[in-house]
Amino acid sequence: MKLKFLRAAAAGLMLTVCSIANAGLIINNFGLTSSDNTITFDEIVFAGNTVVDTQYASLGLTFTSGLKYDAQGSSSFPGISGHYLGNFTPVINPFSIFFSDDQTEAAFGLATNPQTTTFNALLNGVLVESFSTSTSANNSSQGFYGFTGILFDEIQVASNSGSALIDNIQFNNSSSTAVPEPSTLAIFALGIMGLAARRFKKQ
User: The domain containing residue 76 runs over which residues?
Assistant: First the structure.
């Protein structure tokens, strides 16, 4: 009876490992259901076309150098409101959002010309998850994109044509959302199964 219970527990844990290993993709018109931090680019204001890279580091974010600050602001695109960053003139492609701490979920507003955009989640420079989807500045059913359920410290955005605008970057404090590495959980699950087999032999 105990052996069956331990096997069931180990199997359940392995299923959890598999679910954590598969990222949840965020494609909607609101982003995260809740977040500790939202960077709107109104926190620190710059002159128009200022190149932004490390200026928001104290708030937990840095960017690929070359993105430019828009001082006029806009609320006409889903996901974009007030000030924002753009990868225009020259187009920076791909560009990345770097998080000071490891994240398990993050989302941000993105507006582009109608095109296909690829989103890559990376941890220490290694690709963790990726997806491509159609993006547009005129699709009211979406406008926020991101990842949840995996560990990453960078989101890379690659567009196949033209420039992109980003705004309202949402993310959580890693201390409150930390998820064990899938490999760690897998080792733990194997340990439980080994313990069950050892006890069964003794009986």
Answer: 24-177
